[in-house]
């Protein structure tokens, strides 16, 4: 089972890899670095990438890692967007874990002119929602105690009670907002790989008060969650893929890429 985990910042990446005893580093084309952990005797290979803040950086990083793995003949079976998040009260208080049943682009669309908002779905440009596999969501929620629901992706983090209220009305099933999930999901969908979002709540969605963010607490919750997740990933059925896992351990991904003209 090969899992790609995409975080925004290195502190989140390190919180994920801290759930396993050791890690190795693999450079990606373009200079980003995958941090690989292989917990529990090798049933799961988990590559963790800090791709940057926001949906565009997340999509670019995830797509690069997915493409490199596919070209190397070792495609991923699952992509996870992970990190800290704002939680919608009262469903997801600070310190809680949330798992997405849906990854939703909450501010990708157009203003309607009458103060309303039209999503990309309503505009006819694809879908503003990606669904996570139901069986996996249930298993992750069971193993970690995560609150399940929609996780919104925003390019502008909410900073007022008014905006928090607008989002809650538009997305009654939302439990949290982050800034990367939908971008990661778009890259996963382009590769036909299932996606999931798992976040630990560092702050409430609402008036901006960075001093009240409990980032350390959220990062520790993320580490604890991944400790319980690796066995869940190991049990998740791999999708049929073209080609097979090489089973080899190249020092870099580049080493395992096909030789041009060879
Ligand atoms: O300053 C630090 O030490 C630090 C450590 C880890 C992460 C951070 C971040 O600022 C991460 C930004 C990241 O977090 C997500 N996030 C968290 N709260 C919210 C929110 O209320 N609304 C939207 N996004 C949120 C988001 O995915 C950011 O990319 C700092």
UniProtKB/TrEMBL annotation:
Catalytic reaction annotation: futalosine + H2O = dehypoxanthine futalosine + hypoxanthine
GO biological process per UniProt: L-methionine salvage from S-adenosylmethionine; menaquinone biosynthetic process; nucleoside metabolic process
EC number(s) given by UniProt:
3.2.2.26
Q: Where are the transmembrane segments?
A: none
Domain Nucleoside phosphorylase, chain residue ranges per copy: 3-210
Give any Gene Ontology cellular component: cytosol
Q: What class of enzyme is it?
A: hydrolase
Q: Name the Gene Ontology molecular function terms of this record.
A: adenosylhomocysteine nucleosidase activity; methylthioadenosine nucleosidase activity
Q: Which domain of life does this protein belong to?
A: Bacteria
Q: What does this protein do?
A: Catalyzes the hydrolysis of futalosine (FL) to dehypoxanthine futalosine (DHFL) and hypoxanthine, a step in the biosynthesis of menaquinone (MK, vitamin K2).
Task: Record the organism.
Answer: Streptomyces luteoverticillatus
Q: In which pathway does it act?
A: Quinol/quinone metabolism; menaquinone biosynthesis
Q: Which UniProt keywords apply?
A: Glycosidase, Hydrolase, Menaquinone biosynthesis
Q: State a single Pfam family of this protein.
A: PNP_UDP_1
Q: Report the protein name in the record.
A: Futalosine hydrolase
The text of the family note is: Belongs to the PNP/UDP phosphorylase family. Futalosine hydrolase subfamily.
Q: Which gene encodes it?
A: mqnB
- PANTHER family cross-referenced by the UniProt entry: 5'-METHYLTHIOADENOSINE/S-ADENOSYLHOMOCYSTEINE NUCLEOSIDASE, FUTALOSINE HYDROLASE
């Amino acid at each position: 089972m090969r899992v790609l985990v995409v975080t925004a910042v290195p502190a989140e990446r390190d919180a994920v890899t801290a759930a396993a005893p050791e890690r190795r580093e693999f450079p990606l084309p373009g200079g980003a670095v995958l941090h690989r952990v292989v917990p529990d005797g090798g049933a799961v290979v988990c590559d963790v990438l800090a791709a940057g803040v926001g949906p565009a950086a997340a999509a670019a990083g995830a797509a690069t890692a997915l493409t490199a793995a596919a070209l190397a003949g070792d495609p991923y079976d699952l992509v996870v967007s992970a990190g800290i998040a704002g939680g919608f009260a009262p469903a997801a208080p600070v310190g809680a874990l949330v798992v997405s049943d849906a990854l939703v682009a909450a501010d990708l669309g157009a203003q309607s002119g009458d103060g309303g908002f039209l999503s990309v779905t309503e505009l006819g440009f694809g879908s503003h929602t990606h669904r996570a596999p139901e069986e996996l969501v249930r298993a992750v929620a069971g193993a970690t105690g995560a609150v399940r629901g929609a996780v919104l992706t925003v390019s502008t983090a909410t900073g007022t009670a008014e905006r928090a209220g607008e989002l809650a009305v538009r997305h009654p099933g939302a439990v949290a907002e982050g800034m990367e999930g939908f971008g990661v999901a778009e890259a996963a969908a382009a590769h036909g790989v299932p996606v999931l979002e798992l976040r630990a709540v560092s702050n409430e969605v609402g008036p901006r008060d960075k001093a009240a963010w409990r980032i350390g607490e959220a990062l520790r919750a993320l580490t604890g969650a991944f400790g319980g997740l690796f066995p869940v990933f190991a049990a998740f059925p791999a999708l049929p893929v073209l080609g097979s896992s090489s089973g080899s351990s190249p020092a870099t991904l580049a080493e395992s890429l096909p030789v041009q003209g060879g």
